[in-house]
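Please decode residue identities from the backbone states below.
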């Protein structure tokens, strides 16, 4: 395979590698592909199509906001109003004041989908290691 990629030239080799990595069964674990889909359908309208923020905050600091994936999953599950009822008016490791409303997703997403989207956000936008974050969020690395 390496010899073929050398003969293709740098650009064609890059495109080939990207295509192979993105193909079904490629380099992206199934849980992260699921998380990407859940994010696109449920989160991107507020957090931006690239996690850059908008109505909701940017997700670039997701790992420092939620050092424990279990807490992030609970936030996604409860939403801001449910979180306030259980934990009070602040969220995350820095105890930021809740200023905007995030909907609860408990009735919309399964626990597996919530775990997958949390792992996806931690890897894609927070820069976390895929294997580490999948394990932390309790999803299998397929």
């Amino acid at each position: 395979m390496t010899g073929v990629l050398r003969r293709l030239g740098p650009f064609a080799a890059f495109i080939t590698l990207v295509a192979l990595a993105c193909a079904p069964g490629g380099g992206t674990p199934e849980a992260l592909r699921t998380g990407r889909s859940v994010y696109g359908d449920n989160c991107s309208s507020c957090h931006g199509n690239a996690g850059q923020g908008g109505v909701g905050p940017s997700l670039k600091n997701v790992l420092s906001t939620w050092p424990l994936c279990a807490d992030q999953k609970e936030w996604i599950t409860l939403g801001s109003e449910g979180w306030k009822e259980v934990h009070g008016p602040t969220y995350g490791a820095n105890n930021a004041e809740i200023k905007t409303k995030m909907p609860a997703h408990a009735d919309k997403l399964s626990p597996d989908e919530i775990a997958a989207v949390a792992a996806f956000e931690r890897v894609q936008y927070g820069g976390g290691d895929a294997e580490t974050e999948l394990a932390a969020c309790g999803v299998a690395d397929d």
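Observation: Residues 69-87 form the longest helix (19 residues).
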